[in-house]
Design goal:
The structure is a single chain. The protein is of the alpha+beta class and 141 residues long. It has a domain of 93 residues: Immunoglobulins (Immunoglobulin-like), CATH 2.60.40. It contains 2 helices and 9 strands. Strands 2, 4, 5, 7, 8 and 9 form a 6-stranded mixed sheet that branches. It has a 3-stranded antiparallel sheet with strand order 1-3-6, with no helix packed on it.
Length: 141
């Protein structure tokens, strides 16, 4: 009979022994997920240069206002205001400053005498803000 009474005590001792041998993980050691940056409501950039309707000779220096919360900018320039991809001459998604220079090759103005352009800001979460107004320019021959 003594053996049956000692069985619960032996079981309790085994549980206590296992608890002592198993390492305990404190809350401070548990990995925590990296917080996601809070989305920012981006504003549309304001086009600065070239001025709307300007005639440009040589390289085209595009510039626009800085947008608070922007991690990068996306510029498009093309033959029409639809910006449908087929008529886009410029498509750059990775600009980290509010400026872009496009090198005009000889003969470019013959095929592309008039360009429309726009810009949008993109935040650190890759969320795009609204587009700027559309600007236009004429390339001198």
């Amino acid at each position: 009979m003594k053996a049956t009474r000692s069985l619960p005590i032996i079981g309790l001792m085994l549980v206590l022994l296992m608890a002592a041998l198993v390492p305990q993980v404190s809350m401070a050691r548990r990995p925590h997920p990296t917080p996601t940056p809070t989305p920012v409501a981006l504003k549309a950039p304001t086009l600065i240069s070239p001025a709307n309707g300007a005639t440009v000779a040589g390289n085209i220096n595009f510039s626009w206002s800085v947008v608070a919360g922007a991690a990068r900018y996306h510029i498009q320039a093309g033959l029409g205001t639809a910006f449908d991809g087929q008529s886009n001459i410029i498509e750059n998604w990775s600009l980290t400053s509010p400026a872009y220079t496009f090198t005009v090759n000889p003969g470019f103005a013959v095929y592309f005498p008039h360009l429309y352009w726009r810009v949008q800001a993109i935040d650190a979460n890759n969320v795009a803000g609204p587009w700027s107004q559309v600007g236009s320019l004429i390339i001198a021959k």
